[in-house]
Design goal:
The complex is a heterodimer of chains A (321) and B (206).
Chain A (H helix, E strand, L loop, with lengths): L1 H22 L3 E2 L4 E7 L3 E6 L5 H4 L5 E5 L2 E5 L2 E6 L5 E6 L9 E5 L3 E2 L2 E2 L3 E5 L3 H15 L10 H6 L4 H30 L8 H23 L1 H15 L2 H13 L3 H29 L11 H16 L8
Antiparallel strand pairs in A: 1-11, 2-3, 3-7, 4-5, 4-8, 6-7, 8-11, 9-10
Helix pairs in contact in A: 3-9, 5-6, 5-7, 5-8, 5-9, 6-7, 6-8, 9-10
Chain B lengths: L6 H11 L10 H6 L4 H25 L8 H23 L1 H7 L10 H11 L4 H31 L1 E2 L2 E2 L14 H27 L1
Antiparallel strand pairs in B: 1-2
Classes of the chains: A alpha+beta (321), B mainly alpha (206).
Chain lengths: 321, 206
Amino acid sequence: MGHMTRYKSFVLGGIFLAALLLLTGCESQGRFITKAAFKGTHDIVVTFAGPVDEAWAKDISHYRAYEKPDPDIQLEISSIALSSDRRTVTLHFEEALNQDEPHMLTMSNIMSEGKSVGTAFVRVKKLYLGVLFSVLIGAMLIHNFVFTKYLGLCVFFGTSQKRSTAVGMGVTFTIVMVASAMMSWALYQFVLKPYHLDYLQIIVFIGLVSLSVQAVDTILRKINPILFKAFGVYLVLVIANCIILAVPLILADNEYNAWESLMLAVGAGLGFLVALFLMSSARERLELANVPPTYRGLPIAFVVAGLFALAFLGFSGMSIF
Amino acid sequence: MVSTKTPAQLVFNGLLNENPIFRLALSMCPAVAISTTVMNGLMLGVAVLFVQVCSSCTIALIKDYIHPRIRIPTYTLTIATWVTVIDLVLSAYAPVAYKAMGIFIKLIVAFAIITMRLEVFASKNTVGKSFWDGIGMGLGFMFGMVTLGFFRELLGMGTLLGHDVLGFRPLLFFALPLAGFFCVGFMMAVFNYVELVFNRMKRKAG
């Protein structure tokens, strides 16, 4: 029986993954084009099913490219390179491409070995899984909420004295974070925005956060008293953490969709966990160090956090995919 | 516990003895992130002062009607209401400063100092006393922010309130947002040192 359920969950997982993959990648309406993708910051690479004529490929007037939301603005192509097997064309654009938006590329009257194979419209966009992954890593490391956005510091310094406390707080925080961020995302997208109640977002979000913390508290107390004993004390602290309010506000500002919101919430929680873990490891060592009396306690912790923040500065500007 | 302090004592208490940033070590996030210039510190200080005074007075007015079990949600909603007011006012009348402070204006809701003052002071005292306590705490926060901003702007950019004072930039590092960690750490150490010396002197005298 256990074997069957595991098998079932594998199949379900497979179908889910396949569905996700189908949502991603480039859609091409011209059958002659096998692949179109961004390369670097300025280039789009198009792969054809067969060799194309050099005279056709090198003529800029055959290509038209624009960003999906504004078809009136033509993107200027500065040079075109054809591979030696004449199957791959690299279009170099004058300005850097905004890869967050899908691009439409039109290639008129494609000539292959003297014959015309028609006109092709191609949609070029980043892999969606890649976008999600970069949102996750971005929230966790590149824009770490503690070390590069300076949020949630009260709780951060309060609970990073012991490693076990730090991990407990981080885990509790991540769970509450995901739950409350998803609820506030749904409430904002389906209630506040359609009825033009945006100006109520602060009141609604803080109410929702308190409610979800209270709900997790009650449910955990009834269902799993052992877990409650371990993590219950941190629940109260979660409300006092500004990250838990900052994430819904960021989601509302940036108009993220459901998947991206989930990834941002998970990333924010994990980033907080990472920060707490690093800091508590350092502070456990500090207990044994000979710190000048004026610096004992919080002052030295602040300086250590500053050093961590300097290290996290190294992640800035990093881009994935 | 009903406070017997005079208004002047209440204000002084918030400024020095119980300074929210350096003594109580509450609301550290804006102290690190926003205090890059004197102007930013001043603006956020004004916003916090407004929210603190208004919510203190509101809670002191309605304290007899709040059921003790729902007092924390009541405090939070009161603060959220006043933060919404200042958020809308600032975005309409001071858009540049509003943009510089970013998300932090909205996050005043989560600043521990305001909730703590409501719980410790406003829910037990008269409207007048709560007003002066709110003024003291708000000014204390502003004082902390402006002090940090003074050193960071002077050392980082060589300017004060945008005017060139030094004519050169001593340490650009202090203008970086992350230098706030170091600055707050150093300031706390200075406060600790003063306390240490003070205690030593008292022991010698006594």
